[in-house]
Structure formats: structure tokens, C-alpha cells
Amino acid sequence: MSKKNLLVAQSGGPSPVINSSLRGVVEAARCFPDRIDQVYAGWHGIEGVLKEELLNLSSQDEQEIALLRNTPAAGAIGTCRYKVRKNQLEDFERIVAVLKAHNIGYFLYNGGNDSMDTAHKVANLAQEHGLDLLGIGIPKTIDNDVGDSEFKLIDHTPGYGSVARYWTQIVQNADEENRGSCPADPVLVLQAMGRRIGYIPAAARLADPKREMPLLIFMAESGLSMEEMADKINDMVKARGRALVVISEGCDVGELGLLRDSFGHAQFGASALTVQQAMVNYLNSKGLPAKGSARGQTYGTDQRDTAIYASIVDLDEAYRVGQKAVELAVAGQGGFMSTILRDPGLIYNVRYDKVPLSEVANSERTFPSAWISDDKADVTDDFLRYAQPLIGEDWPSVPTIMGRQRFAQLKPIFVERKLPSYIPEADRKK
To answer: Model's pTM, two decimal places?
Structure first.
């Protein structure tokens, strides 16, 4: 393959380490000057590709690229939730035209299962049109739901370790709150993200591996009704005088007035009523077996957009999967996603490999039922052994200026457009 440009984009929800993968891509690309000319970013994912909004990353200051490591969320190059569906033929033709116009030989897409589907479609599209282009996926999701439930395709996704660390710290602090205020507020209900998979609420147990707190964890997979969860909470209050509850946003507590994104995923943060509030209202309406009332807290996008809770392990692994994606690309291995696989043994060690995009596109792993406790209100020690290494030991080093975090500040250096303006098909008024 002759010298070509590399285009990287990302979609889906942000994460604390998504920019570490981006940094890995840019810095790895510099190691192959004979294969890669310029590195571009699709501004707000595949939408930016469709609109021909390509940010030149090769023209950015090296210092700003380095600062991507500790810059959370997706503000650096943006993300989107635009899904290119198989019937949107004009969108596909436009993608081909943009790739051709800008001499793109490598297309790297960072995201979750729907993003891997997009990467897979673009890779196939390139082949169908005879393009000299390789499509590579980079895994990213705080939900940890990409891949298989046997952990053979990927052990865990970048982003999850940091959110698990976030919940480790939040629960520790919340327990101190509940311990002190329990005469007036014996029950504290905390809502965690995680649509229909329990990896995020499960991480709450990392705060209390010896099970010394009066902690209950309700995941969507627990399958408990509102009444059953309330009974377990009240039993805990009777036994311990208080209860600390972590509940998944995906638990079935009745009608929430949900909105859905373009992928069809429930947007719990935009719902008319939260799961936490529904549970608190139910507990208080029925009455607690102790004086006082239940209180609640809904944790939203802060768990995916804060730098200070990021796991150092997660930051390093996110960088490496971005780096690995570039290595796959220059080796001519298109149609794959870079992946993290755990070596067997008691000492945590991983290796970076590849899996076919066809096997992870639109995949959705489940939370192993064997990791859910018999009473459906906790997780097992097997889960703790899986998750604990991912949160790391030390706090990340976040540079500050006058007490403010110093994030990467990329310059708005966009590639000159060569094609007519375009409105993505799904965004057109009917």
C-alpha cells in the first residue's frame, strides 16, 4: 500500500479514557511515516465524516496530544450516536466519496458494539468499491458489554476500569454519609449507569470486598421486583439499622417515561423519572422499619466524564488498544478490532491482539449469572477477582493551572473541503 492518510473517529458515550486511545493512535501513527501521511479525526464521529468535517491531528502541538491522556470525555474530537443503517444508501456513497477525496487508506473507529458495526460496514464498503482502505475497530464502552460472555474475544473494554474505580470511591464516601446520618436517613439509594448489563453497579462491591457495609446491589439481571427489592432493603435496616443501596438504571421499577437514542437504546438520564427516585418514593410511601426516611442520589454523566477517578491501568490499556489498531492497519490487517486478552494465572497480565469485526459488530455480552449472589442482592468473589485489577492502585496525575484542570486544547484546524455540502440521511426533515 502506498502512503495514505489515516482517519480516526469515535461514537457512542464518552469515557474517562477515550482520549488516551486517541493519543495512542496519533503517537503510533508517527512511527510509520513511510505508510501514514496525515492523521485526521472525524469531527463528532461518522457524522463528521458524512459532513466532511475532518480535524487535522497531525497539525496539533505535540504537548496537546500528550495532554489527551488526562483529558476525559469526548470534547477533543467529539462523538455521536448516528447509526448508518443498511438502507441509507446515500450515506454509504457519501462515506466512500469522502474517503476517496482525502486519500484515506486507514479508517479507525473507536466505540462500543454499534460502533464496531459501523467499522465493519465501512470495511466491507471499501472492499465492494475497490478502495485501497483498511477498517479497524478500537474498543470503548464503560458498560463492558462488547464481546462475549466467555471473555474469549475481549476480557474487558477500556472505560470500564475507570467507572469501576469511580464507584469504588463513591460507595466508600456514601457509606460514611449514611453511617453518620442514619438516625434521620437510614436508607441511601444510589443509581448507577449501565442500561441492561450489571458490570457498573456490580463494581460497588469493590468498595467493600469484606462485606462489612450494609450494602445491597441490585442489577437489572437480578430480576427482582420493586416489592422484592424493598423487602431486602427493609430486612437490612432491621438487621443493621441502615442500608446503602446501589441500583442499576436498568432495573424494572415501572414506567419511567423513557426516551431512546438513534441506536434504540434507552436514555435513562433523559427519562421523566429515575429508578432511584421511584425506589425512594416507594420506600417512603410504604414506611421504613426505623424512624426517618429514604434518600437518594442519581449519578449521571459524571461517572464517564471525570479525569480524577480514572484508573491508571485503564488509561494505559486504552492507549495500547489505540496503538495496536494502528499496528494492525499498517500491517494490512483490516476488518479487525484491537483487543485486550487476560493471561491465565493469579498475577494480572494482559496481551493485545485482534478479533474479527464480524464477531463483535452488534455483539452484546451478558453479566455471568454465576457472578450474581444467590439472594440476587450482591455479586460473588469471582467477580471481585475479575474486576479488582482493573481499577489500579494510584490516583492519576492530572495537571492543573491555578487549581483548574489542564485539558488538551486542540486547534480547529480542519481539512479543506473538496465535496459539496451534505446532510446525513437520518437528519433530513421528512
So the answer is: 0.94
Q: State the Cα–Cα distance between residues 45 and 53, nearest whole angstrom.
A: 10
- Per-residue DSSP letters for 134-175? EEEEEE--TT--SS-TTSSS-S--TTHHHHHHHHHHHHHHHH
Contact in structure between 99 and 126 (CB atoms under 8 Å): yes
Domain with 74, as residue range(s), is 4-141+309-361+394-427
Same domain, 294 and 164: yes
CA atoms within 13 A on the CB side of 78: 17
Q: Are strands 294-298 and 4-10 parallel, antiparallel or unpaired?
A: unpaired
- Do 198 and 295 fall within a single domain? yes
CA distance 79 to 68: 15
Q: Could you report the per-residue pLDDT of 260-305, keeping only the tens digit for each?
A: 555 555 554 545 578 999 999 999 999 999 999 999 999 988 999 9
pLDDT in tens, 370-410: 999 999 999 999 999 999 999 999 999 999 999 999 999 99
Q: In terms of residues, how long is the chain?
A: 430
CA 298 from centre of chain: 18
Cβ within 8 Å of residue 18, ≥6 positions away: 10, 72, 73, 74, 79, 110, 140, 158, 159, 318
Question: How far are the Cα atoms of 106, 181, 217, 405 from residue 335, in angstroms, in the given order?
Answer: 11, 55, 39, 38
Same domain, 313 and 264: no
* Amino acid in position 61: D
DSSP for 213-273 reads S-EEEE-GGG---HHHHHHHHHHHHHHHS-EEEEEETTS--S----EE-TTS-EEGGGSSS
C-alpha grid cell, residue 158: 477500556
Catalytic residue annotation: 143
Same domain (yes/no): 74, 179: no
Q: Give the residue among 363, 46, 115, 156 at the shortest CA–CA distance from 263.
A: 115
Q: What distance in Å separates the CA atoms of residue 256 and residue 274, rounded to the nearest whole number?
A: 7
